[in-house]
Amino acid sequence: MLTLEDGETSASCFIAPHPRVAPYLSTYYFTAIEGPDGQEIRDWMNPEWASVRFCWLGQTRGSIYDGPFRDVPPAHFAGPTTVTQPFSAARAHIASIGFLPLGWHRFMREPAANWANRIDEASLVKTILPFDSMLDQVRDAASPEAVAELFDAILIAAMDGHPLTDAEAEEEQRIIAAHAVLVDPATSTVAQMTDRLGMTVKQLHRFSLKLFGFPPKLLIRRQRFIRTMAAVIHNPAANWADALDLQYYDQPHFNRDFREFFGMSPDQYRRLPHPVISAAAKARMKALGDPLQALQRPEGTPPA
């Protein structure tokens, strides 16, 4: 469905979902990987929210952080992450749906913490979406646009079949507010989150595990880390010290986070090729204005 130009090993495109489902999703995105002469291409994904991926052609291998590489099921679900997902493929064409925390609440039927830093068969997640049958429908589609229309139809049908209760609608507003506070660069402590959301520390902790997958303190650390990564993607010539988020005391502070989230130093990471992630970040930035999913603000909130 995606065509690679001469010399390219990866291509990506992003398509905005239908307005009815847009508040719940980051985007629909499509990736093609073709290693030269059948060579395996390897890259490292940044921490992000959950997504379901349908590899309709070829095969990918991957892991979470430093786990063993294994074949990834053609229809697989990746929960929210605070660590890298290394992956590889000699050839793969993938269609994906990215879910924001609000989308977890709308479509999933188990706590996000159950899938924190986890990737597995898509049929294993408790959801109102028919993940087990969607791969064959993706294979039959002729283009990314056709797949996007298919995704729209499936998600809208699921929403129509499972209307929100009044309590669930109220919960949506709390999730939007919490997500907006989390991605606000001014948020640096759990106390700030509890004050702005009117929650106790225990309430926020339970809420965060259920909808976001991790404790709030870890999510705040992830956000400052992702903001630094995004700054380098925006300006590849920048050094790490110039790109540091203001919440970092100094570069050693950032280096510790980098080793925890990626299992290597920033300089080691930068020396590695990133053909897939670089192409995806450029395409996402062109389509959506931001290179990384975890920085996307909930719909209807002003930019930071």
From TrEMBL:
- Keyword Transcription assigned to the entry: answer is yes
From the UniProt record, which GO molecular function terms apply? DNA-binding transcription factor activity; sequence-specific DNA binding
Record has DNA repair as a keyword: no
Q: What keywords are assigned to this protein?
A: DNA-binding, Transcription, Transcription regulation
Annotated protein name in UniProt: AraC family transcriptional regulator
Organism of origin:
Sphingomonas lacunae
Q: Where is the HTH araC/xylS-type domain?
A: 189-272
- Matching Pfam families: HTH_18 (PF12833)
Write down the InterPro entries for this protein, in alphabetical order.
Answer: AraC_XylS_family_regulators, Homeodomain-like_sf, HTH_AraC
